[in-house]
Each structure stands twice: as structure tokens, then as C-alpha cells.
Please model this.
Amino acid sequence: MKRKNMNILEVAVAFAVVLAFIMPVTAFANNEETVEENQEFVGVPITPTCITSVEATKEKILPVQFTTTSEQALGVDFPLFSTENDCQNPGIVTDGLGDILVLTEDLIDPGATSVWGRWSTDSGENWIPEDQITGWQFPDDVERPKIDYKEGMTSWGTLTPGSDVYAVAFYIDFPDITDPSVPSPTSPAGWTAWSVDWGEAHDFSWFDSADVASYPYVEGVSPSADFFGVVAITGDRPPGDNAEEDTMMFSFMVAGGQVTIISFYNMDNDVEKISCDIDQSLAQYYWVCEYVSETSPADNGSYFVKAPVFDGTDDWWKGASGFPGFLFAGVYNPNMVAADGSVYIVGETAENDIVCLYSSNAGANFESSSVTDTVSSESYPTVAIVEDEIVCSYIRDGDIYFSISDDGGQTWTETMDPINDELGTVVDQYSSVNMDGPYAAWTDERNDPTEIYFDYTVEPPEYPILDITEVKGGLGVSATIKNIGDAEATNVKWTIAVTGGLLGLINKDKNGTEGTLAIDGEITVKSGIILGFGKIAIMVTAECDEGSSDEESASGTQIIIFSLVS
Model:
């Protein structure tokens, strides 16, 4: 199984940073604001209009070699990144089957940053060796890498430009989160990063936060084959037409390598610290950001907005019915996750407790619950979904604690012990801790400079992992499929496809289904006799209901009814 062989691969990746594709710039103009009551929350509909378009060029940034200054050994808290500089603000993503990718900032100096990626294929028990850690150095300051799962082994990421970077948005394609060399139609060189300059020529100035929400391509549901999802941004449009400081934006790729950005203007209030997600079951896009009222400080809090991913029209980004939203007064540093029609937003209160705002009807309305209610102060919460549970982490007294809800956010139970083993070492700052699924990564100051550590919040679910261990010839082609995971695989579907040569019509392609495959169990599947002559190519695939899949290719020669596999 190819993705399980990463420890022996030579990783050679060209991370391209694109200084832009052709980019239609679009914007939102909000009509007269109308207020709608929804429980205790206020909704403000916004209607967008398109205004202009521009063009730009692209450039590449080459990968650089990771170096470390400390001995790293697997422990309960595992140090993923340790360099001669401060590492901080990790981003983390999992495919839900034990494959994990973590990114970090490596602060070279105030004007340059390296971003490194390290991955695991077994729920964090083992990580790629240090000499295979992949990264690339940005000529400017970049911050807070964020990643979101798309489909298969694919994810997308983004970065926030630093204070010295003028209105640049970042888009990172990870065709395979555990193999930087795997190509894709959008990224033939493997992992690829683009930077898009929305600077002064395009009527933008500073961006101060960014997050990414991925979405798989579905014909008729996605706007185009190049659409990966959206990058949500907060930042400024400079003085001039449609000027707006600290406003909301989102951007996306469209057909032909173009990038579009949508911005809101004529807003009375400022926003920052954006968090976003797409509910893939509904093709519904959500984002939430911290909201600062210039006219009514009592309304300060968090602002939630939703829209459909696609409505079948060319200007789908306007939203089928505008962009209805809710103001959650008194909620700060928000973080969110959405799936299967439910939305969960966690944030801090003015009393430094953590609250959850939860919706079971796709964000049509929300209820609230207390995640914590202690005399201590909690800060910077993050939220993730692990099977049927909602997990919320937060920082308290330099440690990471977490609470669990098993009833859709209504009630919460806090764990007794912190995640980190060495107490008081977690850096208490925005984006210091990030979670996905049952996994957490954080900025740790137990050593100097700061490092990135990894651990679980809850025990990871058990998964089947299908591995095609052998492809053989003979009277036809046979393959061995083994379940190397820690759970039973159900409805194992397999195919053997043979192409090339002068092939007859007998069993050229074969498929079947195995009801179950036990842990450590294996099956041998066969094509049957193939009739033909000449060089052949063989592709074997296997997948199960739990989501695990594998494929293996081979070549050989067909001599009448004998298949010779090389």
C-alpha cells in the first residue's frame, strides 16, 4: 500500500507560491440593515454585488531542508517540531482514518518564516522521520497555518500574512496529506502553495486572519472543477470605492486558474479572528468571526454568517437569500465546526468561561450551553467532532483542558487532567492550540525556543485499514488484500483492471465484494483467465464502507492465457 511506505520515500517537492492567477475581484454591498430576532440573537441579512476584475502573475518558492536542534523521542507528549527558532501556531488535519498532517510556523526572523509539514499514518503512534519533514521558506512573514479535509487523502490549507505583508492571500493544495510527491490535476508537482496579491492595485490593504473550508468536487454541486472550497479572510479595503476597514471576505478558485475574492462593505462594525467550515452533507458554508461594534460596545461579540456553496447560477456566491447571520453578544475568540446539519461554535465570555452555541437545523437558529463554569479563567477554545461526540479544548493556567458533549452540545463534561504532561507549558495565545478529530497540537514553552507538541484529546476511534500486499500472475491476475487496521472492514469492494496488449474479452476486468474482513484477515481475489498477448498494465483497487481504500499498480506481459507480472 503506497501511502504506508512513506518512511522510505525520498521526498522531493516543489512548493509553488503563486503571486496570482487571473482574479475577478468581487465585493458585497449591504443593503439597509434589517434586524430579525432569533431567540436572544440578532440576524443581519447582507446582499452582495460584483464590482470589478483584475489580472496578475505567479511565481514559485522552492522547498528548504528541515533542521532540528533537539533529540526527539516518542513519548506521551510528542515533540513534532523543534528548531533553533520559535515554532508556534500549529495547523492540524486528519482524514478520519488515522492519517494526520501537522503544519507549523518556524520564525526565522521578523521578515521571513518557514512552514513545515510532518505527518503520521497510524493515528500519531509514529511520525515521518525528521529528514523527510517537508517545508518551504516564505520571503515574508506568514502566520497561523490552517488546514481542512477535502476528500480521499486531499486537504487544502491557508496562511495569514504577517503585519509586514500587504494584502496577500494563501492557498495550499495537499493532494495527499501523507505524501508530498503525489500529483493532482491542480498540483502536478504535489503539495503546492499559491500566494495571491490582492494589494493596493486591487483595492485591498491588510489581511489579519484567515481560515479554510474544503469541499470535494461534485458535478452540478460545485461551481467548477477547480473549486476546492473557500478561504475566509478578515482585513481592509483602503480608502476609495467600497472602502471598509476590518471587514469579512471569502475567496475561491474558479475555472481556468482564476481566483475570486468577495468582500463586504458599508458595514458599521469591524471583524477579526475568522473561523469557517463547510457542512459537506448539505453543501452549506458557514463562518464566524469576532465582532467589534463602533457604535454599540454592548453588542461586541461574535458574528455568524451562512450561505450555500452553490445554487446553480453563475453568481452563486451571492447566496440564495443573501447572507443571514446572528450576532452572539459577549462571545469572543470563536471557533467552529459543522457536519450533518449541525453547527457548533465555541467562544469565551467576558468572565473568561467557555460557551457553546449549537444548532441542529443548519444554522437556522441556535441555543447556548456552558462548557465551563469555574473560578479559573479559560481562553482560546477550539472544537472538533469525534464520531458522536463534540470535543472542546481550551487553555487554563498554561495547560490544555477539554470537555466532551455526547448530546449535541446541550451539556458538557470536563476531563480531570490536562492534555499536556508537563504542567504550565502551553503558550496562552490566539491559535496556540488546534484540533481536528481526536488529535491536538499546541505551542509549548517547556524548552527555549518554543516547540510544537502533539497528543490525543479522546482515544482515537478504531479503523480498518486495507492494504493490497501482493499482485501476482499465473492463469490470470490475483491480488492479496489484508486488513492491517484495528477494526473489522465491511463490504470490501475490489476491482482488477487489465489494459494494454492485444486483449480478448475474457475477464479483462473483474470486480467483487467481500462481506467482511477481520482484523489481520486477508483475502486473495482473482481475475480469472485473461486471453491476450503483449505488455499489460494492471490496477487493483479495494475499498470498504468505513472509508479505507488502497490501490496498487503493476505491469507485466500477457502470453495467450498466462499473465506474467513483473
Remarks:
- Confidence is low (pLDDT under 50) at residues 1-60, 70-75.
- The CA atoms of residues 128 and 519 lie 25 Å apart.
- The two ends are 17 Å apart (CA to CA).
